[in-house]
Amino acid sequence: MHIQTLTIDDQDAPLSVWLAQEDSGLTPIHFAHANGFPAGSYQRLLSELAQNRTVYALDHRATWDGSPYQASKHFSWKDGADDLIKAIEQFAPQGVIGVGHSLGAVITLLAADKRPDLFKQILLIEPVVFPARFFLAFAWLPQVARMKLFKIVQRTLQRREQWRSREEFVDTLSKKSLFKGISREVLNDYAQHGLREVTTDSHPYFTLRFRKTWEAKVFMTAPYLWSTLKRLSIPCVVWRAEQGDVVPLKSWQRWEKSHPHHSMHVLPSLGHMAPLQNPQLMAREIQNNFLSI
């Protein structure tokens, strides 16, 4: 893996690149990561996918060096899709296969809806698709009220922000339920690519590249996707984790019924973090569902 720098809206945006191990001439992949997990965290998965296709992965704006500590009031998932579009126009204007996890799956979907000419196919892992009634219930609430109702937002804002070392970071995460089933090797990848070192006069420390203030903002602003899905014109593959909770069963059933031409799959015994829990299995699933392009 090596990192290039793109310029998007006058800011330096890090783009991770895994060059294809074989020059197959196949369409390259773009991988969009989940909320809080920069692309390098998926090193085990993406190196598998790069066997015969080059893989690009733009890190979310939250991680960019020039980004403020807190997202602007109006920043949304659609802005993340616009960043992705601007990046693809630079590194693969001929088009990509879009793969995404969670937040990244939704950003990929939004970008493909807006610019279908840049995507040959999209493959979505655990996209955040809430029922329509969720948006009816919360549409009138101000963000302060949403923060109080969304426990995940409160937990995110209470997260620790500093660690003395990457080893301490990994030790801390390995005890948390969210990271159950994720190997220490994968957690080490997260520590390597998800932290930045800060040097001070007293002692250096490590802090999150994807700041918790941005992570909380993302959780509070999930978009309504049903109209987007209705317009989608390119081939689409979707995975729902059997033990996940961001694709409610009713949403999944509605998706299957409304879009029978989409290829729908369930990942048995895996949770929302499936690409990090079992990257080899997830790589096989993705490779088995690529179009021959």
From TrEMBL:
Which residue range or ranges hold the AB hydrolase-1 domain?
A: 31-284
Q: Which Pfam families match?
A: Abhydrolase_6
Name the InterPro entries on file.
AB_hydrolase_1, AB_hydrolase_fold, AB_hydrolase_sf
Q: What is this protein called?
A: Pimeloyl-ACP methyl ester carboxylesterase
